[in-house]
Amino acid sequence: MFTSKSQGVVRQPILEDVSEHYSGAAIALHWLTAALIVANLSLGLSMVALPISPRKLQWFLVHKWIGITVFLVTCARLAWRWYRPVPPPVAMPAWQRRSAATAHALLYVLLLVIPISGWVYSSATGVQVVYLGLVPLPDLVPKDKALAAVLRTIHVTLNFALFTLLCVHVAAALKHHFGDRDAVLARMLPIVKPKE
Questions:
Q1: CB-based burial, 177-194: b 16+ in 10 Å, e otherwise
Q2: Per-residue exposure over 46-70, b if at least 16 CB sit within 10 Å of its own CB, e if not
Q3: For residues 74 and 67, what is the distance between their CA atoms, to the nearest angstrom?
Q4: With a threshold of 0.85, does the pTM exceed it?
Q5: What angle do CA 76, 87, 74 make, to 5 degrees?
């Protein structure tokens, strides 16, 4: 097997070290989360500029439903990681491993905190969250216009932080795939099968 050395780390050609592939459930949950986040960030940005209308109100409902779904899927991902730990990291410099671990931890925190911040914000506006139009969620705080303004700023700021971190996450994955030619991205792709 061909290997090359870079910064003292043995690197293998892409797909050669995919034997430690993520499980099908982990891959499905990862890409489901990604699709939900892209949809909700796009929806959130699109609906802000709209004038008050039935369409805008419907989009707000869908935005909340997606947010709660992200929270639930993230809980499922964490439970799955506990049940089936992730495969060993691909060979890379120690600082990159630490950076990746920190970024992943922050992503999980944001994926849990942002939906809750939206839920609290909605409560403060006096609009109850009814998940999928079927399951009413309790108001977390009483209606308070001043508090709602603060919570809105917090919710928006957290979403910008998530967007920034996602850009870094995607850039790092592409750097590993096309620059380092290692299996960091490949072993999370559903179309790539681990070598027997």
A1: beebebbbbbbbbeebee
A2: ebeeeeeeeeeeebbbebbbbbbbb
A3: 11
A4: no
A5: 15
* Beta bridge pairs of residue 117: none
Counting DSSP H helices and E strands in the chain, the numbers are: 4, 4
3-class SS shares of the chain: helix, strand, coil, % to 5 = 65, 5, 30
Q: Which fold has domain 11-188?
A: Fumarate Reductase Cytochrome B subunit (1.20.950)
CA-based nearest residue to 154, from 117, 105, 109, 116: 117
Region 11-38: mean pLDDT is: 75
- The whole-angstrom separation of Cα 172 and Cα 168 is 6
**What burial class does residue 147 get, using C-beta atoms within 10 Å of its C-beta: 0-12 exposed, 13-18 middle, 19+ buried?**
middle
Domain ranges of the chain: 11-188
179-192 pLDDT, tens per residue? 878 777 888 888 75
Mean pLDDT of 68-77: 96
